[in-house]
Each structure stands twice: as structure tokens, then as C-alpha cells.
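Need C-alpha cells for this chain, all 189 residues.
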Amino acid sequence: MAEVKRVLDALVRSRSGGLAAASALGGLALIAGLAVRATQRGEPGAEPARGAGAPQAPDTVRAPAATPFEAGALSDDEATLCLRIMVAASAADGVIDARERERLDAAVAESGLDLAGRQWLARELEDPATIDEIADRVATPEAGARVYAAARLAIDPDTMQERAFLRMLADALDLDDDAVARVESGLAA
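Here are the C-alpha cells for all 189 residues:
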């Protein structure tokens, strides 16, 4: 389903508030940026450590910081995982509320999703993926961070069930508390 990236991008960009507007690069880049932030070590928002207190020589070339990848680098399979976890997160409290459904419908319309894609999405909405189904398909910590970032972008965890869903997802993806805090600080930035 080639349109899945367009649906994912449109869904993230449709997020209310200044967050998506601040991501002029698009929704996929926002997911990638939050994931890069999550996989950095150190305090949330802090610069990576340079070493054991040794000053850096002026002629030393510092390795470039990790940067979000090009949107095309996200495979269709990973984009599908991200979309599946966004649907599951939206349904975590037992109901996809009117605001969540409106955002999803607008993203589908904007993306031009074909009939087969719409049917696939309708099946996902009827029977969302479980956390374990998603986590079993995640191969790297970076991919796990992207999946978690997508889930977090799908919802504002304002119910106990949504907060529990995100905690269980972080555990299943082996994301520590610091990585989760870095995603949260990225959302607040």
C-alpha cells in the first residue's frame, strides 16, 4: 500500500496546535526527529556527552549529530507499523473519539487512499493491532522509537487507558524512561 506514507504524514501533520505547524518538513520527519531525540543518551534535551571531561582539540572534527532521515527512507512496512500503532493508540481507551476520527478521515481524504487502502484501514479500525503484534515486528531501537513517537503523536494521553497503553508500548519496545521523556520534551518544544 504505497499511500500509507501519505496517510501517515497527513495524520501527523493534522495534529492540532503548533506542533505540526512547527514541523515544516512534514509528519514523517517529525516522527523521525522525535525518534532521534529518544535514542540520544543523557538528559532529555541535553547535548550528547563529549567524553570523560577531556577538552576537545580545536582541529578535531566532531561527528555530526544524528538527524532525521529523508521521508523516503521510511519503508512501507515501517510506515504501516506506525499507522497501525496510531490506530491502536487512538482506540486504547475503548473508543476512537470524534476528534481522533475527524483527523483520521481528513488524513485519508488528503492522501488519496484508494479503495483497497480504505478497506484495510477500516479493518484496522474494527480490530486494532495489539502492542505485542507491533513490537514483534520492530527490529531496532531506532525503529522502536519511531513507532513509539507515532503512537504518542496519535493521542493526547488524557485517559488512564491511554497512559497505560503508552507505558506498555514503551516497555514492549524496550524504551527506557529517559527515551520516553525525550519524546515528551520534543513534543513540548
